[in-house]
Amino acid sequence: MDDFRTWHWLETVIELGGLKPASERLHRTPSTISHAIKQLERRIGVTLVETRARRIQLTEAGSILLEHMRPLIRELEGVRGVIEQFRDTGASVMRLAVDQVFPHDRLIAAMETFSTEYPHTRIELFETVLGGGPAMFRDGEVGVYLGLEPVGDHTGVQVGRVRFVPCVGPNHPLAEMAAELPDDERLSEGQLRQHRQVVLRDSHPERSANAGWLGAAQRITVDHLHTAVELMRSGLGFGWLPEHEVRTETDLEVLPVDDGLCPEAALMLYRQRDLMASPAHQCMMESLVDSVTG
Questions:
Q1: CA angle 136-138-139, nearest 5°?
Q2: Of 82, 112, 153, 288, whose CB count within 10 A is highest?
């Protein structure tokens, strides 16, 4: 590491034309830089610089060697930036669990903001359903959780609310029934139960609850919201989707039902208590909040 640093100092001396300007940029004394270069020459057995007309210049060998060293110097500077970030933030990996009902465009916007501030921190995103996120949060597998399920004695920040509405593809029998209803009538829960329902599987490893389950005679259970949307679009069943998701799905229809059948829940954001002082985790929290409110 010392040799790489000295090569960087040598490059700076040649770039700026002398020890004094290099010392000002590097925050080292001219004598320290000069001594380091001489020590490097002794270690490798090659004269790297010579003084001509009171200016330090590279020897022919020094010029060739410095050209070979420049890519390594750039790489070392990148590593140094990573080290400084980890030292300042204490976060080399950001692990967060986000319920699949959270809008993907807002999640991507939050991660873009975070990545700009912390380009060297890796992000591990776990897309969860119902109790899966809280389980990972309680077990310490993630530092941040964003979702609908409460997390024991932890205090979260509400960032919004999610309302669920029943949806089908345009060729589904329920869509035809809805089209024939008078304006003041709604489909009943009993009518919905007579048709196959698409539900999301709880990602909690020890629970078997399903999101939006009405107790229909037939059902298709899937792991991901996008799969559920595709099944509804194809006409294989109906299901409950976040209202914001339906706005972007032009080939899905919202079924007319009483408001009491449409569940609504608070979207909560949690952070582990031992990470309260982490600037990186604070940045991720703020990015997620801003993605909702901005």
A1: 65
A2: 288
- The three-class DSSP label of residue 144 is strand
The reported pTM is 0.68
Helices (H), 132-187: 132-138, 173-180
Per residue in 198-215, pLDDT tens? 999 888 877 655 555 556
Please give the domain boundaries of the chain with CATH numbers for all domains: 2-89 (1.10.10.10), 93-157+267-293 (3.40.190.10), 160-265 (3.40.190.290)
The mean pLDDT of the chain is 86
215-243 in b/e burial notation, b at 16+ Cβ within 10 A? ebeebeebeebeebbebbbebbbbbbbbb
pLDDT at 206: 74
- The pair of structure tokens assigned to 216 is 């229909």
Contacts of 1-9 spanning 24+ positions with Cβ under 8 A: 2/36, 3/40, 3/43, 4/72, 4/73, 4/76, 5/36, 6/36, 6/37, 6/39, 6/40, 7/40, 7/66, 7/69, 7/72, 7/73, 8/73, 8/76, 8/77, 9/33, 9/36, 9/37
Beta pairing, strands 93-99 & 122-128? parallel
Beta bridge partners of 268: 147, 158
Q: Kindly indicate the confidence band of residue 5, based on its pLDDT and cuts at 50, 70 and 90.
A: confident
Tens-place pLDDT, residues 18-53: 899 989 888 889 899 999 999 989 988 999 988 887
> What residue type is assigned to position 93 of the chain?
V
